[in-house]
Each structure stands twice: as C-alpha cells, then as structure tokens.
Amino acid sequence: MIEPASPMATDEPALSLRDPVTGRPLRVLITRPADQAQATADLVERAGGDALVYPCLVAAPPVIPLSSILESTLQNLQAVRPGTPIVAVTSRYAVVALVDALTAGDPSRAIAQALHGVRIAAVGPRTAEALASYGRPADYVAGEPSSPDPSDESSAAQLAAHLIQAQAARRADEKPAVLFLRAAEARPTLTLALRQAGFHVVEAEAYRMQPASPEALSPMRKALVEGRVDLVPFGSPRTVTIALSALGPQATTLLAKTRVGAIGQTTAHALREAGIRVDTIAPQARFAALLSALARL
Predict the structure, then answer these.
(1) Do 146 and 283 belong together in one domain?
(2) What are the start-end ranges of the E strands in 124-185?
C-alpha cells in the first residue's frame, strides 16, 4: 500500500510523563493499532516519557479489493441521489485504501482529478493531513484540532454530527448519498446516525485490522519480564485479548508490576475478567486523559 506523508504534530493537553521524585522518564507500553500507536508515541515523547511501541493490531487489505468496486459504487450513489456524493473516512488507513484504489499503486496519478465531483469528509487533523499529502484536501473535517488521538467510536459520531450540521446549513431538501470507507470491524455508529437523519449511506470495507503475530509481540513480553515498563494504557477489549494472549500464563504477574489503565468501562471489564488489576479508568475517552491519570498514581 502507498503510505502517506507523516502527519504534522498537533497540540495536546498539558501532560507530564516523568517520575515526580527522580525526574526519570516514565516508560509507557503502547499496544494500540499501528497508526494510532505512532500518534500516542508522539504524545508520550512530547510529555517527557519513553514510548515502547508494540501494536497489537495491524492493517490488512479487505477480502474484496476496494479498487474492484469503488468506481461503480460512486456511480450508483450518484444515480440514487442526485448531486455530489460524499466519501467519509475516519482513519489514515481508509485514506491509504482510497488512494490505492484510485491509483492502482501509482502515486503519479492525480488524486484530485480522480475525485472530481466528490466531496470528502474526514475525522480529525491526522486523517485530513493524510488526504492533503496526496493533493486532495478534505471538504469536511470533524473533531477537535487539539486532539491527537480520537477513538474510533467517538470519531465516527463526531463525523456524523458534523455532516448532519453541514447539510442543515445548506438547507437542501434532499440529503446526499454517502460512501463510508470503514474497517471490517467498525461499529455502525456513523451509518446509523446518518441514515436516521435521511442520508443514503453505503458502506465498503477499506481494510481489516488483524492481530499482530506472536513473534512481533515477543519483545513486549521481554520488556515486561525485564521490568522496563511503568505504565500500561489499554484502548480496547480486543487489544486486551491480543496482548494478554502474547504474554501468556504470566500476564497477571507481569502486569502487576506496572500501573494499568483502561480507556473506558468496557476495556476495564475485559481486563478484570482476565484477572488483571485496573488501577485507573480515563475520565474522558482520550489517551491523553488516560496517560495523565496513570502518571498521577
């Protein structure tokens, strides 16, 4: 897959990841999917911590190549609802899949020309910057510019609300058609919200998130065995399952030597069900808030 240019840094809430007594950088184990993991690692390092990055989920192509259905799907959308259709993307993975489908892996093809007559809606600055790096800025950008790490669930809701508000401001009688390029595992948050508001929405799988191999995660276990980890923030139940499987029977013992946090109640429940102590739950569903809570313990 063609990789977009690295996104620019964004502002984040004030955060210190240094030991208050010794001043030593706190070592943070990051298990988020690869794209989100890098954003979180940047956040950790700007806050003075050390990021230990071991993504538990990696992107893979969809079962049906997006390139084989993209053009016909867009044409069908225009036939169903007159006017300009919208393509909605909620991650850089979806942007890369869109570009690959349009260019057949040849970045010399003009993305702007290929997407003429289509509006693009993106979540957050990182997804928008990925689009812009290919020469096609987003028409709609939802989410707070200061947030480097919106969760998948909240970002979909933000984008749906943004599109509904934008369409209301246009005072059009008929809502446009939307093609939502999503992960195979994505929840139907955006689709349900838009359909309820009168949009015609078609979903297409742009990528799948699959577990990292045990070999790729073996350094994570070694870091915990050697006591080189201070904070372990978890962002989803699925990541919990993959990480604990990689750690094996010693998972409870290894994580007991660290401070463990969860992004929300569902993730905390998954940890507790596996016998892992949860030291804190983020007061808001953002990694900056979770890291701040862990650092204060």
Answers:
(1) no
(2) 140-142, 177-183
